């Protein structure tokens, strides 16, 4: 772990990291969000009724996640604006009856795509919440976390899924 924040200048003021001297490498990141909608809503989502008045839940969440990943530099003040080469959202229901959203982003650039993957997964989770809240407000977005990244100074892979 580094002993200083990278987004602060010598005087402690916010500062965008200068990546001008970094070399261009292929970079990937995968982030995951977990959503607990409860058994009643989940039954509707995994059965034949995946439509709400707002449209198809998982498909809409996928589109929202990709759109958000592409806009990360506009949403998070000190993030670099990046042109993603790829962004994929995968939504599955696991054995614990939780919705697992994985966002994988990649590009060839001087800076990583962790924030884009995290943003994509988070907005997909929020979209599921938004589309299902008419049925219940007892929906829990349990966590969002970086699962792995490659490229740059060092790779990372979360040991515990």
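^ Assign residues to that structure.
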């Amino acid at each position: 772990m580094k002993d200083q924040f990278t987004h602060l200048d010598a005087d402690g003021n916010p500062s965008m990291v200068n990546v001008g001297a970094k070399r261009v490498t292929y970079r990937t990141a995968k982030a995951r969000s977990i959503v607990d909608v409860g058994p009643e809503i989940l039954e509707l989502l995994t059965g034949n009724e995946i439509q709400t008045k707002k449209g198809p839940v998982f498909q809409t969440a996928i589109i929202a996640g990709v759109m958000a990943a592409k806009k990360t530099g506009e949403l998070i003040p000190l993030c670099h604006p990046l042109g993603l080469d790829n962004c994929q959202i995968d939504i599955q229901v696991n054995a614990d009856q939780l919705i697992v959203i994985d966002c994988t982003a990649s590009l060839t650039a001087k800076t990583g795509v962790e924030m884009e993957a995290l943003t994509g997964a988070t907005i997909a989770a929020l979209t599921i919440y938004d589309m299902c809240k008419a049925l219940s407000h007892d929906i829990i977005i349990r966590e969002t976390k970086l699962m792995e990244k490659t490229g740059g100074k060092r790779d990372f892979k979360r040991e515990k899924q």
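The helical segments are 39-46, 57-70, 72-75, 114-132.
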